[in-house]
C-alpha cells in the first residue's frame, strides 16, 4: 500500500472513530520501539518474579520486540475498553469494600464477572482491522488482547492511552484503570500519538493497600505474592503463609485499583458482554463451593474463570472459607460445606479443606 502523509493522517482519524463505534473507549497509535523495556524485563525475569508463568520467559525478548513477533510491524493500534458494569452504582467502591469485609462473601474480581474479555476484545479488534482493510485494501496485521507475548501496557502508554501506575497497570486521566487493553500490530506507517504525562505524583495508596505486599515499590511487582497470581495462575497448592492474606478473594483482586484516586473517574462498560453473570458480584462462598464440576463448567462457559478449572475453584473457595474463621469461627454452614469436600478426589482440594477446617476448630 502506498499513501501520502495526508492520507495516513485521515486514516488514523477514521480508525479512532471506527473504534468508538465498536465500543472502545479510546483508540490511539504508537510506534513499536520498546528497546527501553528490554533491560527491566530481563531483570524482572531474572528475579523470578514471574513465578510459574513460564510463558513470560519463554519468548525471551520477543515480548519487547513486536516486529520480531509479527515481521513487518511498524505501528501498534492500541485500544482500551471499559468493563465496569453499569449495574454497579455510584457508590460501587463502598459496595466492594463491604463485600471484602463480609466473611461469607465470595469476592471475584470485577473484570471476571462478565464474558471472557479475550473473546470480546479480539472480536472487535478484528472487526476494526476488517474495516481498515475495506478502506485501504490488504495490509499486514495481527490482533492481540492478552493473548501473545506483547507488552500491551507499554504500547498503550506510548500511544497515550494513559500512564503506567505504580501498581504496573495503566491509568487513564479520564477513565481510571477499569478497562481492558488490546492492539492491532500493523505494517502501515500511521502517524503516532503523544504519550501521556504520568500523574501518580507522591501517591502510594496502591502499594500500601496490597494485602500481600506484592508491589515491592513503584512499578515493581512480585507476581508470586499477588492474589491474582495465587488464585488464577498458580496451579498447585497455595503457600500456607500466603493463605491468610488472601481473605475472601476467590478469583483475582482489585484492591490496588479500587483504592486508586483516579478510579473516581472509572467509566462504565458500553457493551453488554461485561454485565455481571450468575450473581458473581453478590454470591456467597458456600453456594459457589457446592457447584459440581459439571455445574462449574456449564455456568462458567464463556467466562475467563473457566480456565482455572473446578479443582482450583474449590481450592480458592476453601481458603476463603478457612479465612472466614477469623470473624466467624465455626460458622455451621461453612463448616458443613467444607466437610462435604473433605474426601474430595483431588489431593489439592483435600489439603486446603483440611487447612480451612483446622482454622474452624475441626480436626
UniProtKB/TrEMBL annotation:
Cofactors that this protein relies on: [4Fe-4S] cluster; cob(II)alamin
Residues where tRNA binds: 235
GO molecular function: 4 iron, 4 sulfur cluster binding; cobalamin binding; epoxyqueuosine reductase activity; metal ion binding
GO cellular component, one term: cytoplasm
Pfam name, any one: Fer4_16
Main location: cytoplasm
Signal sequence, renumbered to the chain: none
Binding site for [4Fe-4S] cluster 1: 200, 203, 206, 260
Entry annotated with the keyword Repeat: no
Binding site for [4Fe-4S] cluster 2: 210, 226, 253, 256
Binding of cob(II)alamin, residues: 63, 146, 170, 181, 228, 253-254
Gene3D superfamilies: 3.30.70.20
Active site: 146
Subunit structure as annotated in this protein's UniProt entry: Monomer.
Protein family (similarity comment): Belongs to the QueG family.
Job of this protein: Catalyzes the conversion of epoxyqueuosine (oQ) to queuosine (Q), which is a hypermodified base found in the wobble positions of tRNA(Asp), tRNA(Asn), tRNA(His) and tRNA(Tyr).
Protein name per the record: Epoxyqueuosine reductase
Organism name: Janthinobacterium psychrotolerans
Amino acid at each position: 500500500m502506498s499513501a501520502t502523509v495526508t492520507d495516513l493522517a485521515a486514516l488514523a482519524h477514521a480508525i479512532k472513530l471506527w473504534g468508538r463505534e465498536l465500543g472502545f473507549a479510546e483508540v490511539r497509535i504508537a510506534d513499536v520501539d520498546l528497546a527501553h523495556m528490554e533491560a527491566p524485563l530481563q531483570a524482572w525475569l531474572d528475579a523470578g518474579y514471574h513465578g510459574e508463568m513460564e510463558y513470560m520467559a519463554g519468548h525471551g525478548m520477543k515480548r519487547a520486540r513486536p516486529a520480531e513477533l509479527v515481521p513487518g510491524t511498524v505501528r501498534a493500534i492500541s485500544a482500551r475498553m471499559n468493563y465496569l458494569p453499569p449495574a454497579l452504582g455510584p457508590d460501587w467502591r463502598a459496595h466492594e469494600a463491604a463485600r471484602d469485609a463480609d466473611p461469607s462473601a465470595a469476592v471475584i474480581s470485577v473484570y471476571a464477572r462478565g464474558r471472557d474479555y479475550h473473546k470480546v476484545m479480539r472480536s472487535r479488534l478484528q472487526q476494526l482491522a476488517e474495516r481498515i482493510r475495506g478502506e485501504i485494501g490488504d495490509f499486514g496485521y495481527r490482533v492481540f488482547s492478552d493473548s501473545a507475548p506483547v507488552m500491551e501496557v507499554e504500547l498503550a502508554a506510548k500511544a497515550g492511552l494513559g500512564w503506567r501506575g505504580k501498581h504496573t497497570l495503566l491509568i487513564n486521566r479520564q477513565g481510571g484503570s477499569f478497562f481492558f487493553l488490546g492492539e492491532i500490530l500493523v505494517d502501515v506507517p500511521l502517524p503516532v500519538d503523544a504519550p501521556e504525562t504520568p500523574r501518580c505524583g507522591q501517591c502510594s495508596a496502591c502499594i500500601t493497600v496490597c494485602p500481600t505486599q506484592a508491589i515491592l515499590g513503584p512499578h515493581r511487582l512480585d507476581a508470586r505474592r499477588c492474589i491474582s497470581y495465587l488464585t488464577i495462575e498458580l496451579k498447585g497448592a497455595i503457600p500456607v503463609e500466603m493463605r491468610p492474606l488472601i481473605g475472601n478473594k476467590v478469583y483475582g483482586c482489585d484492591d490496588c485499583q479500587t483504592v486508586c484516586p483516579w478510579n473516581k473517574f472509572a467509566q462504565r462498560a458500553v457493551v453488554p458482554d461485561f454485565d455481571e453473570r450468575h450473581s458473581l458480584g453478590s454470591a456467597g462462598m458456600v453456594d459457589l463451593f457446592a457447584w459440581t464440576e459439571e455445574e462449574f463448567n456449564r455456568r462458567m462457559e464463556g467466562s475467563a474463570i473457566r480456565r482455572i478449572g473446578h479443582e482450583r475453584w474449590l481450592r480458592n473457595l476453601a481458603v476463603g472459607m478457612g479465612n472466614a474463621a477469623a470473624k466467624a469461627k465455626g460458622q455451621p454452614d461453612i463448616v458443613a460445606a467444607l466437610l462435604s469436600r473433605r474426601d474430595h478426589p483431588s489431593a489439592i482440594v483435600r489439603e486446603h479443606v483440611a487447612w480451612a477446617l483446622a482454622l474452624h476448630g475441626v480436626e
